[in-house]
Amino acid sequence: MRVLLRLAIITQLAAGLGHAEGVAAYPAAGAAGTDARAFMIGWKFSVSSQVTVTALAFLDVTGRGLNVAHTVGIFDANTSQVLVSATVPAGAAVAYRDGFRYVPASLVLQAGTYVIGATSQSESDPVMVHSAGIQTASKITYIEERQLQTSAFTMPTVNFTLDEQGDFGPSFLIAESSPPNSVTGIANSAGGPAGFAPATYVSLFGSGLANTTRAWTQADFSGGNNLPVSLDGVSVTVGGTPAFVEFVSPGQINIITPDLPLANGGVPVVVKAPGKPDLMSWIDIRTTAPALFTWLTGTSESGRYVVAQHADYTNVGRQGLFPDKASTFTSPAKPGEVIVLYGTGFGATQPAHPSATLSDKIYPLATPASATIGGVNAPVLFGGLIPPLASVYQFNMMVPANLSNGDFPLVVTVNGVSTTVGILTIQN
Q1: What pLDDT digit, counting tens, does each position of 49-59 carry?
Q2: Is the pLDDT of residue 16 over 50?
Q3: Rounded distance between C-alpha atoms, residue 73 and residue 85, angstroms
């Protein structure tokens, strides 16, 4: 099973503008919220000496992308003239860094005072309400929050002090002389837009995240069953609670999220590593975030086919799916047979199992799962956590007897939430 999960975990890095850049300022704390009114939100700042702006950004507090587009601009604080502006689009297609979605921009700021502002539509993306502990890059000094109730794109002029350090949304990236460590992406480790839930495998991507590369070993488990909260000095907290660290490398960290209350955005994810600045990103926490692990084949088909096994635990898949392995490494499922699949983020079990330990026995899902293959009901004979793994759900599923040969979409649903479509190969 160790091999299966290593094949299934995402390994590619998220795209970025380059690592010699840093976010100018971001909040260290706050609560996510929206407003029924349209606002310009932002903050006033000073620059001690020349800096080069390389991108404009908006905070993504869910980690899954923005609901609407936001126009972001930097203004001269004295004249209100907009010096540069760009629109950060809705969705998750644009680059991500340290909690922000960003788009390229170009501006040289001389020593002086400026205001950054962004459009925030009615009930659109959550922003950090009553944000606090604003952290800034060198040469940047945070002065005060700014806002203005308007649907127009204009410099925010009101300093509403009751909001502590403001409703935080926009920021910008600046060129830095030395490449910092950074988080450039965060995702459910099984892939797709599944999101995040307690006891879910989550992958953080970036640069300079750790000094070593390794997965946990038996020696890392204290008391035999307790999951490690750090590997080689690298630790991660989610909402202030230690996460369980499964894998570390300079470009990727895999964690299991701890048991947490639901949060629609605004849960901080903080990475700590020896000799490196702390890194912060943001995610939301749902009741379930179901996702099935998929085969990473090293080809264009990577991530398409679900990790599945026959009843004898040989691998299910199109014959020759892995070009670097024997053609018999995978074989198609047969109509009417029972296959085994694996996933993460499927939610509560009965009895409940704490995310902090390895599964010591079978823990069935509290709410039974259902599944379809090719749109046809596929009976789920079992779904739940299995020993001796950590937060890995197993599903024993019967392939419908009336399916023909070919590739078919497979979906598992629990509590009304469905996995991203995966592919299963079937052959009589």
Answers
A1: 999 999 999 99
A2: no
A3: 4
- 181-285 belongs to which homologous superfamily? Immunoglobulins (2.60.40.10)
Q: What are the start and end residues of each CATH 2.60.40.10 domain in the chain?
A: 181-285, 291-426
Cα–Cα distance, 54 to 103 (Å, whole number) = 9
Confidence of residue 97 (pLDDT cuts 50, 70, 90): confident
Place of tokens 């599903």: 395
Give the chain's length: 428
Q: Is the dihedral of CA 31, 35, 38, 44 positive or negative?
A: negative
Closest-CA residue to 126 (of 284, 287, 239, 288): 284
Q: How far apart are CA 19 and CA 412, in angstroms?
A: 38
**Integer Rg of the chain from CA:** 23
Q: How far is CA 284 from the centre of its chain?
A: 9
**Cβ pair 102, 16 in contact under 8 A:** no
Q: 60-73 pLDDT, tens per residue? A: 988 889 999 999 99
